[in-house]
Amino acid sequence: MLKLIIPSIELYDEIKEEFISTKEQTLQLEHSLVSISKWESKWHKPFLVNNKTVIETIDYMKCMTITQNVDDKVYEYVTNENIKEVSKYIESTM
After folding, report:
1. Which parts of 1-94 fold into alpha helices (H)?
2. Residue 20 phi, psi (nearest 5)
3. Residue 62 pLDDT grade (very low, low, confident, very high; cuts 50, 70, 90)
4. What is the C-alpha separation between 41 and 61, in angstroms, rounded?
5. CA 56, CA 22: separation in Å to the nearest integer?
6. Cβ–Cβ under 8 Å, residues 58 and 75
7. CB-count exposure of residue 19 (10 Å: 0-12, 13-18, 19+)
8. pLDDT tens-place string over residues 23-51
9. Residue 67 in contact with residue 27, Cβ under 8 Å?
């Protein structure tokens, strides 16, 4: 299991002309056959033999998430470091 911290961030919405602040979010992720099955059924391609786009990778993170009631907006603020952590976790020999 991987504990992933999505950091808080402050952005400016130019359309609404207001600042947007997010809270830090901790997610529990688990790389499993269930996660792979969910992802493959959505993308209609094998998980293990394909290079994935950033969008596909973040979607797999959603499939891996076992934390309850996570707002989908949280995944919009995933950092490159978060993606590296997930990749390292998936590639480990556990």
Report:
1. 33-43, 54-64, 80-91
2. -120, 125
3. very high
4. 15
5. 23
6. yes
7. exposed
8. 999 999 999 999 999 999 999 999 988 78
9. yes
pTM of the model: 0.85
Residues with Cβ within 8 Å of 2's Cβ and at least 6 positions away in sequence, in order, are 28, 29, 30, 31, 64, 85, 86, 89
Tell me the HSE value of 51 on the side-chain side, using a 13 A CA sphere: 0
Mean pLDDT for the chain overall: 93
Strand partners, 22: 9
- Point out which residues pair with 10 in neighbouring strands: 21
Please name the residue that has the structure tokens 């529990």: 28
Q: Is 30 in contact with 1 (CB distance < 8 Å)? A: yes
Question: Tokens in use for 54?
Answer: 């950033």
Phi/psi for 92 (5° steps) reads -65, 155
Q: How many CB atoms lie within 10 A of CB 7?
A: 13
List, in order, residues 6 or more apart from 54 with CB less than 8 Å away.
83
